[in-house]
Write the structure tokens for this entry.
Amino acid sequence: MLSSKKSVKYGVYLTAVIVFFALVLLPPILGIIIKWNTMQQVLNQPELMSRALSAIENSFTVALLVSALDIITGVPMAWLITRGKSKWLNVLDTLSDIPFIVPTAALGYSLLLFWSKPGGVSSLFGTSLVSPGWLLVILLHFAFSYPVVVRVMVGALLDYKREYEQASRTLGAPPFTASRTVTFPILKPSLIASFILAFSRSISETGATMMVASLLENGNYVPLFENGATFIQTNLGPNKEITGAVVFASFILMILSCSIFIIIRLLGPRLKMPIRKVWPITERKLSYSKAASSRNAISLLVFFLLVLIPSLFVALPAIQAVFGNTLAESLGGGGIWGEYWQSLLLSYCLGTVVTLLNIVIGLPMAIIIARRKFGKTTSGIFDILVNIPLIVTSAALGASLKIFWESFAIVPEIWLLIFAHLCITYPYLVRSMSAAVERISEDLEEASRTLGAKPLGVFRTIILPLTKYSILSGAIMVFTRSVSETGATLAVTNLRTAPVVIVDWVRQKVQATPLEIGLGCGFLILFSFIILLALRLIVRGKGRY
Amino acid sequence: MPDVRIINVTKKFGKIVAVDNVSLHTYDKEYFSLLGPSGCGKTTLLRLVAGLIQPDEGEIYIGDRLVNDVPPEDRDIGFVFQTFALFPHMNAWNNVTYSPKVKGFDMKKAETIGNEVLEMVKLHKRLDAFPNELSGGMMQRIAVARALAAGAKLLLLDEPLGQLDAKVRNELRYEIRKMAKDLELTAIHVTHDQSEAMAISDRIAVMKKGKILQVGTPQELYMNPKSIFVAHFIGESNFLEGYISSVSNEGVAIELRSGIKVQATNKNIKKGEKVVLAIRPEAFIIEKGVKKGKNSVLGVIERVTFEGTNIRYEVRLENQDLVVVVKPSLIGEWFNISEKVTLTFPPEKAHVFTYPEVGLREETSVE
């Protein structure tokens, strides 16, 4: 695609494949294998092993539960957004994106304030409504993974050919039956994709989980609930050395995540949805007025009460801070703010570098997958492999990456950080781009070639203009994901990005007042809003991103 | 019985009036076509009847029942889509038995219906095939079978042959009509292909810009078009501009450009009015050389096209108007380019219309 010369073309593709294996896929896997022998430490300590296994079990229980809840509550919301008739649905569509782009560290603190701290919803009941622990972890994971399901399903429903559903209606099926027997079985791949995305977000989240899973007692954090990610974090050595416990937990998490992913990929297409039996009377009742209004009301209630308001609750102390001295102090850069601004600068510079690197190395891979450049089977295998960083706990991935690079080369800390973020964010750009390229008919490329365009010309004049919105949206996903990443950052480096600083403030490793934490989160959210707004403006009228 | 009455129905999409105060009555067991160019509102009208969209104004009756607020599943219709809309996750059998199942029929009855309709479309040997394993023609046959299995007496077909190649299209259109007639269904068939509509319809409604211009049998529309557009859209017409020079009991005399005088039998036009004369290409008698007579016009052959069944001549008249003449290729003599000829047409075969305010080009536009 990039040049007429086969050697140049395949040289570019081969380089992309080598870079993918060398920087993205192999380091996290080989890192674990290198430290294989340290696992003996855990095997000799039954208590530690049992704790690790229990944490991993918690990871999967929470991820499965949350993903299932996401599907149950997110799909009706996506339906409401795409099929409702109110003019306010556009606003609802935008609102449903907000928690998606709020950095999880800010989101974690916001939820903590809303559910647990005095001044939140708890103040209505005179006591902490939801104490830090497993329930708050579930609420947190639900809040940040719910928008992923809504976003994927809104896109799927917009792309869906409504004629199938209309055909079903003209054949006598009421709306509920039509959607159950026709629409959702056809959209099964999107349902599976959204489940996997929600699942992987839950499995890999670290920073915010640490905030809501432990309780501050006498200046120390007592973990009340531990999952795989927080276990890895707490078992890193004082100087972030990789211990046997970290290797053990990372290994089990990786194996299980990949197994679940492969099982879903293999069995998903064969999964039969229950469409053979129809209950005409009951389904007719479920189709109209009362049932539909109740479903919409519950969807909205869940969204506002469990997702949106808790996610934005941190705005309250941030606003208080704006009207007090805290804003001036923060802008002055004194005290804790010096480090905060530095960390924010580091986060955004890192996000930019990682995004640019991703575009350079991810684009050829996206084309390889979409256009099956190395044959159907090989490209299909790449299609599966690029997802692996997505489904591996970022803390495990970071830990493994650190082992790998420290074993093979002296890599400056900043590069280690870039590699870790590159590894975690790579699937977002490749997935988004390959889907976009796949949507472009090859006829257009061929038409361009017959009109005299060279392969590079075809890429520049056809592929690039038609996929620029997907590149942009993929780039923004990469950027926001990098900016909010905590687990891998903590595992690979002592460099402090903004979410790491926020986590330390919340955990009182650095003394910060609630107003300061609120304002710190507020800045992060503000920048996220600006990114969302820019995204909306740039892709305005394009329907989906 | 499912006759369909559409009374003063209007449907707007934003500022666009897709269906503009339309009234129409299709009779029970009639095969009725809605014909018109793309964007004329014919599909919108069909979807209004199906209940897939709701009218802004007016009433729609299926039989004696006002169905404005009745959802599609309760209208007792069968609908065939241009894109087939076969459920891709179901095989042919499950597609065809979908309607009996969702309507709560017992399995035995659903199977009987499924077998009957698959037999009818001659695809009972492909019941395990998924849509992506079938050809276009087969897919549309299954789509028709699925609509028939709904057991409805009203069959709505939205350009059902639009995506098929010419040979299959020609075969399938007669099959669909035969099935509709055998099962005594009322069918409303949307198409932009006038030859398709002419071939299969009992009656046709010609639509343009959201309005119905004329309703009639294929013969009525062809022989007696009530407007320039219908004369243009149904079959082919030559249009000649002129003025009414006199009106008598026999008809009207028209002066074409360059003073050529011809006659037609229309009577409801005033003297001095600017008119358009529409003459079918096959209505001309073409003869070699210069012949004098009533309604004879001289011309020179400018182009000859052999079309198989017919030969098509483009003739430049002495007043510089260009007309098309079509003659059967196996009957009569052939003419050559540059040959001088005389064209004659019977007065009763010429239709006279008042010259349109928007101009002839705009009036005949199908855009």
Q: What stands out?
A: Chain A has a mean pLDDT of 84. The domain at 1-34+314-545 of chain A is CATH 1.10.3720.10 (MetI-like fold). Chain A is about 75% helix and 0% strand.
